[in-house]
Design a protein that fits this description.
CATH topology: L-2-Hydroxyisocaproate Dehydrogenase, Chain A, domain 2
Order of helices and strands: HEEEH
Structural class: alpha+beta
Strand order of the largest sheet: 1-2-3
Distance between the termini: 26 Å
Oligomer: single chain
Number of strands: 3
Helix content: 25-40%
Length: 65
């Protein structure tokens, strides 16, 4: 993570980030893939999840909330 930020590598790594309607999740810190570069998060990478995977993901996040 440090190398991705220091050297602006824009690597995709799993990080806990504050979601604002990504994956249909709002106002919660969740571990998802992000693109890291200089200054931190450049992009939250939204994977194309199947319906059952997305339902499980949301259920897991609801339990955390």
């Amino acid at each position: 993570m440090i190398g991705a930020v220091l050297f602006n590598q824009r690597r995709i790594l799993p990080c806990a980030v504050y979601l604002q309607d990504e994956y249909g999740i709002d106002d919660l810190f969740v571990g998802v893939p992000v693109k890291l570069g200089s200054g931190g998060i450049k992009e939250i990478v939204e994977l194309d999840l199947q319906d059952n995977e997305l339902a499980d993901f949301k259920s897991s996040n609801d339990a955390v909330r």
